[in-house]
Amino acid sequence: MTWLAPVSPELVWFEGPDAVSFLDAILSQELEAMKPGEVSRSFLLAPRGKLDHLLWVLRGDDLVGLVADPGRGEELFSTLRRYRIRVKVEIEIDEGPLWVVMGEGGHGGWSGDRSGALDADLSWPAIGRTLVAGEKPDIPVGTEGQYEEARILAGEPAWGVDIDDGTIPQETAMADRFIRYDKGCFLGQELVGRIHMRGHVNRFLRHLHLAEPAPAGSSITLGDKEVGQMTSVAGLVGLGMVRREVEPGETVRVAGIPATVAEIPGQ
Question: Are 186 and 169 in contact (CB under 8 A)?
Fold first, then answer.
């Protein structure tokens, strides 16, 4: 079954002979190693190493598209435009309609230029997702509840809900996929590199498998100690930041309800 996501991401294009090298020096992913037509994921970090954006990267020849969360394209555009100094890069927000087809992964790439068809694979671990542009696909539009359930089951954090600008990348399940620690300098590298080499974080984003429904925002406790907070929930599965001393497989309580802590897919 395929359906349209009820929300659409935003797409910012970077075009010019320096587009790839410009973004490679800023993002945590190694764009220079990507092939034209390839799709990957990356963080944009703040200078001190905390999260700023979760991104999908569409690599072309002298063209890169960055897919941002809904409502965050203008912010991404403004942030990266400030770093454009003495480089040949044009930055533009895509104004055309974008759609995400749920339930079916794309072909893993796209045409590599803006004149061709957009068929970018933005699949989450538990469900296929394809970014397409232009005319609205003739398939049903899913509900917000249906989309939230898919997101939470996949372990995809929502900005401002599960993660924010105080989150350290290694607190998510995404760091090893989003960060190329050996690529050289990038924005925010000092903090994440130091943690990767000789440190640790004190909490992790985890799945919570509930015995009964519990509301988002509920405290997570182990014995008489609070060890986190459930930030999102769909049915009997939630997401929440949990203290590192709580191992996957342990039973905690969420608003007094038993729940099993589990690693997020891809961790």
Answer: no
Q: Compute the distance between CA of residue 67 and CA of residue 56 in angstroms, rounded to an integer.
A: 5
Return the SS3 of 132. strand
Backbone angles phi, psi at 139, to 5 degrees: -140, 160
Q: How does pLDDT run across 165-202, given as a tens digit for each residue?
A: 999 999 998 988 899 988 888 999 988 888 888 878 99
Enter the pTM of the model: 0.94
Tell me the β-bridge partners of 93. 12
Sheet holding 63-68, edge to edge: 39-45, 51-59, 63-68, 10-15, 90-93
End-to-end CA distance of the chain: 27
Residue 265 contacts residue 126 (beta carbons within 8 Å): yes
Question: Residue 160: which region, alpha, beta or left (left: phi > 0; alpha: psi -120 to 50)?
Answer: left
d(Cα 17, Cα 14) in Å, to the nearest integer?
A: 10
- Helix, strand, coil: what percent of the chain each, to 5? 15, 35, 50
Q: Could you tell me which residues come within 8 angstroms of residue 21 by beta carbon, excluding any fewer than 6 positions away?
A: 32, 87
| Residues 6 or more apart in contact with residue 56 via CB below 8 angstroms | 9, 39, 40, 41, 42, 66, 67, 120, 122, 131
Q: Which amino acid type is present at position 149?
A: E
User: Residues 127, 129, 131, CA angle at the centre, nearest 5°?
Assistant: 175
The DSSP string of 151-184 is HHHHT-PPBTTTB-TT--GGGSS-HHHH--TTS-
- Rounded to whole angstroms, how far apart are CA atoms 70 and 62? 25
At 80-136, the pLDDT tens digits run 999 999 999 999 999 989 999 999 765 555 777 776 678 899 999 889 999 999 899
